[in-house]
Every structure is written in C-alpha cells, then in structure tokens.
Amino acid sequence: MKQVVIASVIMMFSVGVSAAEGGYQSGETAPPQKNQDAGYKGSEDTAQTPISRIRDFRQGGYVTLEGHIIEKLKGDSYKFRDDTGTIIINAEKPAFKEKTYSASDKVRVSGKVYGRGEQTTLRVSRIEEP
C-alpha cells in the first residue's frame, strides 16, 4: 500500500514540473490566412483589433489580437499573424501562464503597442485561448 501511495505522489509532482514551463512549441505550420468578413462579434471589453489597424495606434495603447504565433524569433520575440497581417510580439514566460502553444493553435494576445508603421511591436501581458 505504501508503494502505491509513494508512486502516485511521485507521478503527481513529475507532471507538475513538466507542465510548469509553458511557451511556444515550434514545428507545426499555422493555418492559412482568411478574410475577415463582418469583424469580431463579442462584448465590448473583449473586442479584437486587427493587426492592420494597430500600426497607427498611440504608444502604450492596449489591444487584443486573435491569431497564431507562427514563429519564435530570438529571446522573447515571436512572429504573430492574424487574418490581416503579421506583427512582432514580445512575450515573456509569465504571459504564457504555463501553457504551451504551437503554430496551429489559435490564441488571443493582449498587450501594449510600441512603435509606428512597420516598426510596430506588441509587448504582450497575457496569452490565452479564445
């Protein structure tokens, strides 16, 4: 009986350790881009902004995007794509909340806009499933 209890405790801790990392898993390809017909329908506080519109946002403006993390660049930088374009996002480990996503997973990212035009980046504070 003691062996069963010890084995179950060891398994419980080993699963927790492997799941605590989170982040991005490369290797899969993202689905193709689609045209966005009527826009995002939802409540006002979760409204999505397309990448094509945030290039002229004010510095530090908070936005939410839905799409796919398609490539890990260097450090905490990733290439993110929605149905209107691509943008570089900066997401530290805590933003992933210990979950791992691949290019085929649709995610919702929220953060602050920095830069203008083609130099626009998004500093992500939260990544979650839509």
Give a topology summary.
Blueprint: H1 2-19, E1 23-25, H2 51-54, E2 62-72, E3 77-82, E4 85-91, E5 100-102, E6 106-114, E7 121-128
Parallel strand pairs: 1-5, 4-7
Antiparallel strand pairs: 2-3, 2-6, 3-4, 6-7
Class by helix and strand content? alpha/beta
Elements, N to C (H/E) = HEHEEEEEE
How is the biggest beta sheet arranged?
Answer: 5 strands, mixed, barrel
| Straight-line distance between termini | 44 Å
Overall pLDDT: 80
Radius of gyration: 18 Å
Helix content: 10-25%
The general outline is elongated
Question: What's the number of helices?
Answer: 2
**What is the strand arrangement across the widest sheet?**
2-3-4-7-6
Uncertain ranges: 37-46
Number of strands: 7
- What is the strand content? 35-45%
Descriptive report:
The structure is a single chain. With 130 residues, the chain is of the alpha/beta class. It is built from two helices and seven strands, in the order αβαββββββ. It has helices at 2-19, 51-54, and strands at residues 23-25, 62-72, 77-82, 85-91, 100-102, 106-114, 121-128. Strands 2-3-4-7-6 form a five-stranded mixed barrel. It has a two-stranded parallel sheet with strand order 1-5. The protein starts with a helix and ends with a strand. Mean pLDDT is 80; it is low at 37-46.
